[in-house]
């Protein structure tokens, strides 16, 4: 079901994809997408697709570890991130079966501490998601420990109703652009 919904959303959002792609292209050239390896289900790596929001030549690392992130951000990058449009290409990952709409957010492979703890608690047994329980309860602004508590809660209590509530809460958070780190 995830793949079918993602496919139709991709078709529906295609005009916005084209516009955002052109904005990035005009501002900083190719590539339009940021394609980067992430840890997927059971730690298996996959390439996650996002719209590029950083200038070419920016060091590849978690934004929260980067000093002076704003100096690397494209002019359009702030708006693309604030609106969470940068995550829309994750629909490609859902269609490919690598991600789901709801689950723990995929992390870069250098986040070893988080990956190790996710493995320890069985959190990595789930497909990563575009949104998740931790994201709707703090987004980027939380410690690893807090994120793990929330991800473990989701693992134990997940069901379709909870997923629906997470998606609705995600839409509200994105509409208010709260908890975004630049």
Describe this structure in words.
The chain is an alpha+beta fold and 182 residues long. It has one domain. 46% of the residues lie in helices and 12% in strands. The chain has helices at 2-28, 69-72, 77-82, 90-95, 112-121, 144-157, 160-176, and strands spanning 33-39, 45-51, 100-102, 107-108, 129-131. The strands form 2 sheets. It has a 3-stranded antiparallel β-sheet. Strand 1 and strand 2 (45-51) form a beta hairpin.
Secondary structure blueprint with pairings:
Elements: H1 2-28, E1 33-39, E2 45-51, H2 69-72, H3 77-82, H4 90-95, E3 100-102, E4 107-108, H5 112-121, E5 129-131, H6 144-157, H7 160-176
Parallel strand pairs: 3-5
Antiparallel strand pairs: 1-2, 1-4
Question: Could you give a quick summary of the protein structure above?
Answer:
The chain is 46% helix and 12% strand.
Envelope shape = globular
Secondary structure tally: strands: 5
Sketch the topology as an H/E string, one letter per element: HEEHHHEEHEHH
Instruction: Walk across the major sheet and give the strand order.
Output: 2-1-4
Roughly what percent helix? 40-55%
Tally the helices.
7
| Mean pLDDT level | 89
Number of domains: 1
Backbone CA Rg: 16 Å
Which labels suit this protein?
182 residues, alpha+beta, three-stranded antiparallel sheet, two-stranded parallel ribbon
């Amino acid at each position: 079901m995830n793949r079918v919904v993602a496919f139709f959303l991709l078709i529906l959002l295609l005009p916005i994809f084209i516009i955002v792609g052109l904005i990035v292209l005009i501002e900083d050239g190719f590539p339009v997408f940021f394609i980067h390896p992430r840890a997927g289900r059971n730690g298996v790596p996959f390439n996650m697709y996002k719209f590029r929001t950083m200038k070419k030549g920016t060091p590849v690392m978690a934004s929260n570890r980067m000093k002076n992130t704003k100096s690397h951000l494209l002019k359009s990058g702030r708006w693309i991130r604030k609106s969470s449009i940068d995550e829309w290409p994750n629909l490609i990952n859902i269609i490919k079966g690598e991600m789901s709409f709801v689950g723990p957010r995929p992390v870069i492979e250098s986040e070893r501490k988080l990956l190790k703890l996710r493995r320890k608690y069985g959190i990595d047994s789930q497909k990563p998601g575009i949104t998740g329980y931790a994201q709707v309860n703090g987004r980027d602004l939380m410690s690893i420990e807090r994120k793990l508590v929330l991800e473990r809660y989701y693992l134990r209590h997940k069901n379709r109703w909870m997923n629906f509530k997470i998606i609705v809460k995600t839409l509200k958070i994105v509409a208010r652009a709260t908890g975004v780190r630049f």
